[in-house]
Amino acid sequence: MMMMMMMMTTRRVSTNSSLSATAFGSFTKWSFKSSQFHGESLDSSVSPLLIPGVHVFHCPDVVGIVAKLSDCIAAKGGNILGYDVFVPENNNVFYSRSEFIFDPVKWPRSQMGEDFQTIAKKFNAMRSVVRVPSLDPKYKIALLLSKQDHCLVEMLHKWQDGKLPVDITCVISNHERAPNTHIMRFLQRHGISYHYLPTTDQNKIEEEIFELVKDTDFIVLARYMQVLSGNFLKGYGKDVINIHHGLLPSFKGRSPAKQILAGRHLMQV
C-alpha cells in the first residue's frame, strides 16, 4: 500500500558511490528517514570484462541480511555500485535492491542464481530476483499515456540510448496524435505500434487494453490519467508501474492533487 512519504518513518540505506560489497556489512540496523535512491545507471566501462547486475530481495526482517547479500557479491569478485534498503516501521519485513558489476567468467550467470537462491532459503524470502540485462531475456512492456508526452519521451530516449533493456511492444493512449508528430514518427521508425483507445466515464476500454497487454511482463503508466479498475489489475496479474514525477503516484484514485493538499492540512493540524 502506497503511503505519504513524509508520514512514514523507515530504516533505509542508500548510496551511489562505487563501494566494495563488504563495506555494507555493518549497516544492517542503521535508522534513516525515507529518501530517494540516488544511484546512477550502472556503468561497466571500468573494465570490459565487467557487466552490470541487479538483485531485488524481500524477506522477514532479521539481523545480518545486508551482510550476507554483500558478502555473496564480494566473494565472487563483484563490486556494489548502489545499495538501497527499506524496512517499514512496525512491519517486520525487509526490502533491498543492489546494483553491482561482476566478471561473468568468475561468476557464471547460472551460479549467481543458485547463490542468491541459497540466501533466499536461509532468510525465508518471499522474493529474490536477480537480473543481468546483457545476458537475460528482455522484459516485454507496454506504455500507457494520456495527452502529455514528457514521460513517454524520456522513456523512449532512454530506450533508444540502451539505458532501458526492454522490448516495447506497444504504446496505448486515450488521446489521438497526428501522424506527423515527433512521437508518431519515432514510433513508426522503430516499429512500435500506437493504439488510440478513447475512454469515457462509462467505458474505460479495459477489455481492449487487456488484449494488447496480456502477453507483456509489466505495464508502464507514462502519465496515464485514467484509473485502472481492480478487475483489470486482478485479470492482468502482473506489475503496473507509475513513472509520473513527484508525489502523485503515492495517492491512489482520483484527484491526487487534492489528496496531497488534504494530507498537508492534516500534517499542519
UniProtKB/TrEMBL annotation:
<dbReference type="InterPro" id="IPR036477">
    <property type="entry name" value="Formyl_transf_N_sf"/>
</dbReference>
<dbReference type="InterPro" id="IPR002912">
    <property type="entry name" value="ACT_dom"/>
</dbReference>
<dbReference type="InterPro" id="IPR002376">
    <property type="entry name" value="Formyl_transf_N"/>
</dbReference>
<dbReference type="Pfam" id="PF00551">
    <property type="entry name" value="Formyl_trans_N"/>
</dbReference>
<dbReference type="InterPro" id="IPR004810">
    <property type="entry name" value="PurU"/>
</dbReference>
<keyword id="KW-0554">One-carbon metabolism</keyword>
<dbReference type="InterPro" id="IPR045865">
    <property type="entry name" value="ACT-like_dom_sf"/>
</dbReference>
<dbReference type="GO" id="GO:0006730">
    <property type="term" value="P:one-carbon metabolic process"/>
</dbReference>
<dbReference type="GO" id="GO:0006189">
    <property type="term" value="P:'de novo' IMP biosynthetic process"/>
</dbReference>
<protein>
    <submittedName>
        <fullName>Formyltetrahydrofolate deformylase 2, mitochondrial isoform X3</fullName>
    </submittedName>
</protein>
<dbReference type="GO" id="GO:0008864">
    <property type="term" value="F:formyltetrahydrofolate deformylase activity"/>
</dbReference>
<feature type="domain" description="ACT">
    <location>
        <begin position="54"/>
        <end position="137"/>
    </location>
</feature>
<keyword id="KW-0378">Hydrolase</keyword>
<dbReference type="InterPro" id="IPR044074">
    <property type="entry name" value="PurU_ACT"/>
</dbReference>
